[in-house]
Amino acid sequence: MSDKPRILVITACLDVGGTERHLLQMMPRLRDSGYEIDIFVLQKNGALTADFEARRIRVYESASNYEGLVGLLGVSATLVRHLIRQHYDIIHYFLPAAYVVGACCSLVASRAIRIMSRRSLNRYQEKSPLIRTVERGLHPFMYRIVGNSTAVLNDLRAEGAKETSLALIYNGVAAFAPGEPAMRRAIRAVHGADDDCLVLICVANLFRYKGHRDVLEGLAQSLSALGDNWQVWFAGRDAGIGDELRGLAEKLAIADHVRWLGECDNVPALLQSADIGVQCSTEEGFSNAVLEAMAAGLPLIATRVGGNPDAVIDAESGLLVSVGSPREISGAVAMLAGSRSLRRQYGESGRRRVLEYFSVEAALGGYRDLYAAALAHARR
Questions:
Q1: What pLDDT sits at residue 2?
Q2: Which of 364, 16, 327 lies closest to 170 in space, CA to CA?
Q3: Among 113, 127, 163, 296, who pairs with 271 as Cys (CB 3.0-4.6 Å)?
Q4: Is this model's pTM higher than 0.90 or not?
Q5: Where are the beta strands (DSSP E) in the chain?
Q6: Phi–psi pair at 204, nearest 5 degrees
């Protein structure tokens, strides 16, 4: 058994998403800082599992997934057995399902310090009063409850979490090296865009709350400002609304300008090949995609929701718009489309802001401090 502090991260799955990529970015670095880190997932066969294991992070899975009562009981039994057999100093829950299942299991099977990370607004609780009740009941048993934006912390305060238990750790992203002009031209050529084509990009899996519909409608209202030579790239896996969005693009008569890229493993290069970033979710904790677009030097059009105002300074590093407002999206598109110098100004400002406040090193320091304080607390 290693004498390093042992941490178990419990999360819902390891598919490609903001939380999963954040964990892939942070946990190997924390392991290199002197921690032994394992991950337990409620949903098996995640697309990123091999990436974690390649970075020497052990991944434990249940034989069944947690959907339905039988699956939930199977996952819970597996997790309880794992906690009884393994000693952990800290258990850290990411995302609501992991919090509800993982914390309930660890309360009966482990004496580890418990930490929860909330990475979204709590609107999901509106659909399940039971989850709302269970989460609020679990809060007093947490050593720390971590939010990734001030909006998330405000939700937790409203739920009754003690101020002394709250902590803020922003997402962190790596700075991108300047893109090569040849790479930019090559990627644009793949999608039929020449050097003069105005390219907007939205990196978000096709969930309804990510606001793709509002973006499409906003673009359709911007045709006079966009002219004929423009494209919008949607990068992200289809979570069930792809056909609906394609139909809307056809109905709006802009389908010829839309590129559906699916799940991509070259997001940094795509961002550096575009001109404007668009992230118009109707709800958000703190968007990695916003930070990555800023790190790539793109001016942002983002909804005024969740952590977006923490990241994007309106009229300085991008333009903030109201949730669910294609009209405001259209106005922001027209403003940025019409001014190359304004795009450059906002993009450079956003990149500087990421380097100063939202770097990988800043987030890593937050986790190091969090875990060091938890271990000191346990020794008292």
A1: 62
A2: 364
A3: 296
A4: no
A5: 6-11, 36-41, 58-61, 90-94, 113-118, 144-147, 166-168, 198-203, 230-235, 258-262, 276-279, 300-303, 318-321
A6: -170, 135
